[in-house]
Each structure stands twice: as structure tokens, then as C-alpha cells.
Give the backbone structure.
Amino acid sequence: MKTLRVTINDIAKKAKVSASTVSRVIADHPRISVATKEKVHRIMKELNYHPNIIARSLVNRSTKIIGVIVPGMAEQSFQHPFFPELLGGIGSMAYEMGYKILLSNVSTVEEEKQTVKEFAFGGITEGVILVASRAQDPTVNELIKTDFPFVVIGRSENPYVNWVDNDNFVIGYQLAEHFIKQGHRKIAFLGFSPGYMVTTDRVNGYKKALQDYGLPLEDELIVENKFDSDNGYDLMKRLLVREIVPTGVITCDDLWAFEAIKAITDRGLRVPNDIAVAGINDVPLAKFYNPPITSVKINAFSLGTKAFEMLQTIINSEIKSYNRSFIPAELIIRDSSVKS
Amino acid sequence: MKTLRVTINDIAKKAKVSASTVSRVIADHPRISVATKEKVHRIMKELNYHPNIIARSLVNRSTKIIGVIVPGMAEQSFQHPFFPELLGGIGSMAYEMGYKILLSNVSTVEEEKQTVKEFAFGGITEGVILVASRAQDPTVNELIKTDFPFVVIGRSENPYVNWVDNDNFVIGYQLAEHFIKQGHRKIAFLGFSPGYMVTTDRVNGYKKALQDYGLPLEDELIVENKFDSDNGYDLMKRLLVREIVPTGVITCDDLWAFEAIKAITDRGLRVPNDIAVAGINDVPLAKFYNPPITSVKINAFSLGTKAFEMLQTIINSEIKSYNRSFIPAELIIRDSSVKS
DNA sequence: TTGTAGGCGTTATCAT
DNA sequence: ATGATAACGCCTACAA
């Protein structure tokens, strides 16, 4: 099904001009007669000509394509509404700037390395946006070595990476503060996962708030998420049978909040009157849950647009620099955390 | 930040061979001496050489890239966990076959046409997968004209398109049948939207089941989703104050089911004992909702892999053909539709 | 087994 | 205002 293409030469021949003239018409070059311009345009339409982007890229050394790498997108954790939103943000900004997106969702570390190399050295991509959830992302290290323009979505402690993220420390702090102000003294944090920067930052913010308000830190109230199979339901159930039962629970994601609430009600307790609950991400469903869930809007779309913007700056800049940017998040208080 | 690239000629020079020899080494050509092969390989590593994919594509007339077009991905309707799953399916298959994915999420019809043209004629893409939700998708018509390989995810009535989908008629039928067998006589269908094939098929399946079991079709029980701002909560609320109040409700999506349930309980009724509810798509949360939601697993991942598979067949085949394929869905019965 | 030459489709630099 | 010509980086007959 390889269709023969109509090239600039076909146009040139039929228009009885040279290929360069046609090229100039395409580029809308100023010094070209109106007559030939029109003629060429007509013939281009006639023959249904479209410039070959590949050939153009080769000579221009610019593909107008950026890569987006999402390690483990096929995994459960990415079956999340925030993800398309993020992609939408990247995409809309990219479109506006005339860029296209080469998407790569790999699962193994080996595949990742391979993809990064192709993207970085293959000349097909001018820069890369990497969605990195893990604290020590192997792909990040791979990219740093290459000296290739890239931006990470997700905070990194490596000084050599450009990144965009929410301020997850603040998110954790604000949620804890909200609970404290509601009078809670035993506040649990559900879903801490040491390997992931996001949850680490959030739990640290939570801890700081407790300290600032003079509350004790009880390790038992911080529930770790150790396995992929862990979920809010099971972890919450485990938490409910411990010695210290919290009156407030912060979960690392709305989905976990939903699950935790189910565990609580299954045990005959009520939300928020017996135990208050909050999530993070403000998924569309949060406000329609029963009860509606207190959450934090992270503005994934902006995360995406900002990441693209940053990448473009890096690509176009002559001087090297390391940039980071926080996208503001917004605490949205709903019934699940406010006693009625 | 345009970095100077190391080319095949640099390798050739340093290895004191010709460029073609280097090319042959890269291609693992059989007739090439082990000595030079090793030498070239060593130097390639030394200089960190990576073949330029653009140049290679130009001569090969094959980019190993397919396009994925998602009209309106930035919209609310795509903030859905099924979407990354679909993308994951396409991507994993693509990776396996050595293909990359050029993703395009456009919002306006004009942008769509533009993108399709670039993808189809620009030579950068060998085929396109289009996620089409609307019954009369303008992009589909655009693509048909071009005679360019493409596969649509979502059934189309146009005889000239290749598509992959669930059998939504069967999905609607099975859900209705399930309710009927539970003894329901007034079964509502929430979220019918005439412009969208999916919901049309589902509602038709639902109607057929009612007929087959000798139940009357009440137009009032089919609630149309007219505006983007419509949601399960409001529509359900409206349904509850009509003359005929259903005892069972089929919603077109789990998220709608969640919202509908909230409307029901907000009104002091219970699910499933007063009104039974079911959704479609089996989002991760469905089984953790309170009550757990009866739903239909649509296997979005398989939808994606199958679409890629079909596209590749089309690209490689000499003969023209029109193919369609159904991915089986699976009814999952949970508490929300079974009286306790 | 290796080298030479030509071409993939386009743009940019000189000319004219 | 337009045309030749030489790249861009790679591949592939055809020669040797």
C-alpha cells in the first residue's frame, strides 16, 4: 500500500518552473511574481501536493516533534483521569507552537533506555518531556548523560534536571492543617510510598503541620503503600484495627479516599462524623461521591502546558540553565472532612 | 542548543572505510569481514554514534510511525481512565512491532482537518488510528478521501472504514436482560446521546431486550444527554420526579452511575433496594464504591492492541479490504443491581 | 569484501 | 524574479 508521492519536482515540471521556485512559493517568499505564485498554487492543488515533512526536517535539522515518555503507562496507576488531562495540556500547547508529540509508553527499564536513546540521538525529537513518578528514575539519569533537552514532570532532587510539579509539601501541609483546624488530633496519612517523590513530599508536609501545631507524630498513623496490589480499602481496614484509630484520614489520591470510605462504612462507622477523609487530585467524581470528597485540585492541564513551555525555552536557548516550576494547587473542602 | 551530530561519514573517516561499509555494518549485512565489523562497531561506540532516523526514513520511505488522533482529548469526556488504557494497548503493540506513536489531540474541527492532512500526506506517518466517538465524525470523512491507511476505534456505519469496537448493542442488551431477570419492569436508560454511536447502540440493545421479554418501551425512561454540562446527578434527579419512577437504572458510564446513586440517596432512597443501578466500563473504583457497582468490562487495552494490529495489516497488505472487529465485553454483577 | 555514485524530497546559496 | 547546484544523512545498486 505504499503510495507514490507527488513531489516538488512534479509541480515544478508541470508549472514549467524550477523546484526552487516552487519551494519559494511554499515558503511564501517575498520576491516572487504573483503570476507564478498563483500558477504554482493551482497546480499544487490540482496534483494534491503536500510537502514531505521528513525531507524538510532533514535539511532544516528541525523536526518540530517532542517526545513524551511515560514509564509504565500501561500500569494501573496510570488509569487515572489526571493523565489524559496532563497529556491534553502538553498537546494543546504543542499544537499552538506547531509541535507534534511522539508518545512512548514503555514498561521495562530496558525499553526505557532504548527509547530515550532513540529519542535523544535519533534526531527525530527536539526535546523530551518525561513523566517521572519514582524518586530515582533511571530514565532521568540516562537523559542527563545525553545533554539532550528534557523536562521532567515531577520534582527531582537531582540538580541537573528541569522540572515542573505541584508543591506537594504544601499540599500535605494544607490538608493536615485543615484537619487540625477541624479539631482532629489523630490524623492518619494513607498511601505513603518511599520510592515516590510525590508521596514523600506530601507526607513531609503533613508532618510539618503536625509539628507546627504541637501534635505528636505517630508512626503508626502513617500507612505505607508497599505493593502495587495495595489499595485504599485494605490499608484502611488494617488501620481500623490498630490501637490508635484516627479521627481523620488523608489519602494520597481520591481513588484511595473512595476506597477508604468504603472500608470505614463497611465497618459501621460514618464519614465524616466518626472519621473524616480527604483525597488529592479532585477527580471529576469527587464532588459526586457520597459524601462529596474534600480534595486538592492539582491542575494537571497546567502542569502539561508549563512543561512544554519550559522545554521549548530550553530548546531555543543558547545558554544552559536549570529551571523548576511549581503549579499552584487548590484545596477544595467538601463534606467528607467537615462534621455536620 | 542545536548539537552537532556525528554521522556515518565521521565513523567512516575514522575507521578508514567508506560510508557504505559503515552502513552495511549497521544493517548487519552478511558479507562483511569480522575485522572491519568490529572496528566500526568500536568506533561507533567511541563517538557515540546513533543513526539519524529522519535520513533513514527519507530513503526507506518508511518512518515506522503511526498517528493517533483523539478529537477533543482535552475535553471532560476524555478525563476517563479508559483512555490511558486504550493508549497503553496501542502503545505496547506498537512498541513490539517497532513502531512509534505520534499523538494528536485537537479540539476544533479545523485543527482536525489540518492534522489529518499533515499525518496523511506529510509522509511522517504510515497510518492513523482515530478515536471517534461521534456518529458522523468529520475526520473520518476526511480520511476516507485520502485513501490513507487508517483504523477507527468506535463503530462506524460508513462501509469504507476499518474499525474496532465493543459490541455495544450486546452490552445494552445484556444489562437490560440482567435487570429484567432481577424482576425489574421499569428500567431506565440514562445517558443516551443520539450523536454518539456508542450510546445509540447501547440503547438499541436495551430496547431489544425489553421487546424480547415482552416489556413496554416507555420513551420517558430513556433520558437523553443533551449538553456537555449534563451529568448523572442532575439527570437522575430529573428522572426521580417524573410520573414513572424506575426501579432499575442503566447508565452509560460508571461515573454516571456514581452520580446517579448520589442523586438517589440524596433523595432518601436506597440502592439497590429501592432502585438498582448499573454502569459501563468497569473503572477501578467501581468495585470499591458503596455499594459496589455492577458494570461491564470493555477491555480498552485489547481495543488498542487490536486497532494497531488491524492498522498494520492494512499498511502491509497489497489488496484493499474493509475490516471490523468486536472486542468482547464482560458483564460484572455487583451489589448495586442485586437486592439484598 | 569493499568502494563509488546516485538518489530520497526539500531548502539555501549563489548566480543570473 | 527565477534557476542551478550543493547540501541534509543515509541506503543501495553496480563496480571492482
Observations:
- The two ends of chain B are 67 Å apart (CA to CA).
